[in-house]
Design goal:
CATH class: Alpha Beta
CATH topology: Aminopeptidase
Radius of gyration: 15 Å
Largest sheet: 5 strands, mixed
Strand content: 25-35%
Number of domains: 1
Number of strands: 5
Number of helices: 4
CATH architecture: 3-Layer(aba) Sandwich
Order of helices and strands: EHHEEEHEH
Distance between the termini: 44 Å
């Protein structure tokens, strides 16, 4: 995919980002995505643009943790179904790692739902290793 361009997301990408968030299993409106995008001061959202259209996105954030130190974390990665397994995800991961390295971060972490076995294999192919399994608890406030 030589004609893929990786760039930072812009407000006008909100509709495409929302559509892809839905493919990832997180239905969102363009307005919700635009609002969230503007509220990410320590994160970057990268998009893969193919033929002028957004074909994927990746969010990377900085985590500052008392017990684990400071590192980068993939908050989300999705490539449109029509372009999966084409190298776009790999290009986004490389760009995210470069962004993190450029900020002096020496580790990148990703969390993935236990049912996403294809996703796990993708990350393992790119040098990521499972370090623990966990449950996520959520409580409305």
């Amino acid at each position: 995919m030589h004609d893929v361009r990786i760039r930072e997301a812009r407000p006008e990408d909100a509709e495409a980002l929302a559509s892809l968030a839905g493919e990832l299993g997180y239905p969102s409106t363009a307005d919700q995505i635009a609002s969230r995008l503007s509220a990410l001061p320590d994160d970057v959202v990268l998009v893969a643009e193919l033929g002028g259209a957004v074909a994927g996105w990746m969010q990377v954030g900085v985590v500052r943790s008392l017990e684990s130190g400071t590192f980068a974390e993939v908050r989300g990665l999705v490539v449109t179904a029509a372009h999966r397994s084409s190298g776009i995800g790999a290009r986004l991961v490389a760009a995210g790692e470069e962004w993190a390295s450029g900020r002096g971060l020496t580790r990148m972490r990703v969390r993935s739902n236990v049912v996403r076995e294809r996703t796990h294999a993708f990350y393992e192919r790119h040098g990521y290793r499972t370090i623990k399994a966990q449950k996520v608890f959520d409580k409305p406030l």
